[in-house]
Amino acid sequence: MNKQLVEGKQSHFWFCFCCTNLDISASASLLFTVWTPLPVVSWLAPFIGHVGICREDGVILDFSGSNLINVDEFAFGAAARYLHLDRTKCCFPPNLVEHTCNIGYRHSEYGSAITWDDALQLSRRNYEHRTYNLFTCNSYSFTANCLNRLCYDGSMGWNMINVAALMLFKGYWINFMSVIRSFLPSMLVVSLGVMLVGWPFLIGLLSFSLLLLGWFVLGTYCFKSLLDC
């Protein structure tokens, strides 16, 4: 058997093993979004990271480069946080008149799916022809596109901001080492910056974080054409 395939399957089993605090029946599929810190960027702004979304078999899909959707090779390292998604909150219409969501026509026009994996595959085909840009079209955009095709939680307004907020406030750490891996570099950068520059470094770092957050918020809600991905 292919060595890479074996290692990939082991990573799925380990990921599922780490999610022990979830109450999942034997017949339920493991539907997740996952998050990992970005090198350098997360050191300066720990709330910024890279996200992916799992297929029904646990394989992670993520948008990590122009015309590139990673399959079973989560970019930038192992997942550090996860969020369990509820299948019952998805809309899988067999036809136009059998939508379970309240925005059936808009959902069909956008591109609905009949299964979870079907939605991810449609988004994958779409993003295999997109140019990656950390500030305008990134992994959060891809995950939001998948959730919109699923009309997850009855909404088609998923975007970078609410996907990030969902993971930030409702996600879980996989283990303690994931916390260390996510925050230790940032703590070292802050400590070194304060030692060498002093308190102005913290002011500059805070300003950078606020500018970055402001860009995504304004681009998402006020200047939508900038982040139309």
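Second entry:
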Amino acid sequence: MQTVKKHLHSVFRKLEVPSRSRLMALAA
């Protein structure tokens, strides 16, 4: 799961949008 979290973090940095909050909720 650590790899997924790292990947998500990279995606968030790429997106740099408030939507990452929603993505985080979905990931959770």
